Amino acid sequence: MGARRYLTAKVVQALFTLAFVLVFNFFLFRILPGNPAQILARQRRLPVEAVRELERDFGLKDPLPQQFVNYAGDTLRANFGISFKFRRPVGEVIQGRIWPTVLLVGVATIGSTVIGLLIGIYGAWRRGSGFDMGSLGFSLVTYAMPEFWLGMILLILFASTSGLELFPLGNIRTPGGPASGIAHLLDVGRHLFLPALTLILALLGEYALIMRSSLLDVMGDDYIVTARAKGLREAQVLRRHAVPNALLPTVTLVALNLGFVVSGAITVETVFSWPGLGLLTVEALQAPDYPLLQGLFLLFSVAVIVANLIADLIYGYLDPRVRVA
Amino acid sequence: MSATGEGRGDGGPVLEVRDLHVSFSGRQGLGAGLLGRSATTARAVDGVDLEVARGEIVALAGESGCGKTTLARAIMGLVKPASGEIRYAGRPLRHRDLREFRRKVQMVFQDPTGALNPRQTIYESVAEGLRIHKVSGEEDVLVSKALADAGLRPPERFFLLYPHEVSGGQRQRVVIAGALALEPEMIVADEPVSNLDASVRGEILALLLKLRDRFGLSLLIVTHDLGLAWTVADRVAVMYLGRIVEVGPAEDVLTRPLHPYTKALLQVLPEAGGDLSGRSILLGEPPDPTRIPPGCRFHPRCPEVQSGRAAELGMEERNRTEVPLLREIRPAHFVACHLA
Ligand SMILES: Nc1ncnc2c1ncn2[C@@H]1O[C@H](COP(=O)(O)OP(=O)(O)OP(=O)(O)O)[C@@H](O)[C@H]1O
Ligand code: SF4
Ligand SMILES: [Mg+2]
Fold it and tell me: Would you call the peptide bond into A168 cis, given omega within 30 degrees of 0 as the criterion?
């Protein structure tokens, strides 16, 4: 398959998925019990007239097809409505909270990928060794452990007054602390450490396991034996042949996972009061803040779709069987 | 063509295998590893003697699982023998000579698709050996020459292609070019054509023959196809359950076999098309390298035993207790059978 055709096919596929998500997002929030205006009214004990007015404001009295057209148009214009809770445009609210999540997920992804791949590579290379057995057990345990639990353990051990008190209990910075310069960066780093470590530990095991098995798979291939038979040293065989080929499935998985890591950050952000999208989602659910939820849901879905696309593109780039026209 | 054999290969042995043993412990997977080694040991190669002379083509034939690949890999130093000796150019192969050996002896695999790194261009694959051994000279000239010698012309056209972009036959030529680039003295080929379309098998075999004629290469070709052995080999070695049971000039072995096993193989040849990879051709239990019968390892399946002829000759006891050794029955034709 040509590179261009591959690329086009993948982008079209992503667009179709996106369209489906848009439609789904619309109906999901229409089939929830009670309309948003009523819920809002119940919470604030609004008179009936006010509810009617709200319903008109939200366009909830329009026929469904009309509502859909409005919704689609608004979404395409990046107009996601006004948040009930914050009384500000949803886009703005999300924008204000997106960077902490990007930072957390970014650091966690890079950290878990690098460490996970190294553990997997070394384990496969020294298959059956003490390191291999140990890391295998460690990977399985951290992979199986719920994130919130892991987070709480770390919190108790390293942040609470009954623990070591090495790190702050939560938030992204010390209130009233430094707001710029190196001191600020260090402050954020100290706050980032535990939540990032939790996510890294949660992701690490899977990456290590996949890399290990993928490498073991590749190491039995004839081209590896050929390279050895030609006199290539073992470390070179690993570096030049085995690892690049074994990376293919692993890197694809990491990219694929990215979308889920974003939404998966919800629990970690909650445990550490990390003011990102995860915590925002919890706040929106408690309200409940439908426009905000709808916006967040759309964003998470887009993250998954984009991650998928990235995975496909990386795969296409790394595998010459796809890449070459 | 097979009759060309006799005159060849009189330059003394390049490769000598002496009483080689290779066994695999029954350890399988992580679980068994944690639970300790199981007691079953497969004696895949169980006392092999074999020689390949300069410029000679030797075919190693036998049923699936008899240890052909293991023997080839042990010769290449890819699996560690339990005991025995491999001598190259008259000297025992020592660890410090391995690097030089790996330049002089090249291996070609059954499946050319698996034998080429899918992420490397053909140029990279062929050049790899040159780089490993730091061969002097212009790299692209050497790669060109190797590709051309392997019948890929014009060679430059193949430089930037990936393995998946050429046909199966061409892929095997790339593998052969990778071997030729190092100007080897010998090639060990493990079933080099059995994964190829019938239409290109002949071409690849013709190429191997041509390389022998042009460069005086020695070839050890593993095959389960006696027809192929007949076509290309000067000598044929027949292997059964980890041992060579008969070896000699190709024509002599294939037209006047002496070992009951070789005879049985050749009897089914017309129907099976010379291919031994299919179902078992003999009665009795299929051979199992974890449970090698005492005495003559072939006796449970031997037609001479089943027909009662061995008993008539008073050989039954010996078949079950005494391991038959290779004896030269006709000139250069050795057989390991008490009845021969
Ligand atoms: N790495 C290994 N570990 C354990 N057992 C092995 C291993 N490699 C081969 N064996 C066993 O050794 C025996 C000989 O195998 P080998 O691959 O050498 O046979 P072969 O003659 O090449 O067969 P085929 O014609 O199917 O290629 C078989 O019983 C096989 O199961
Ligand atoms: S030694 Fe005996 S059992 Fe073995 S092949 Fe010869 S006749 Fe058969
Ligand atoms: Mg084999």
Answer: no
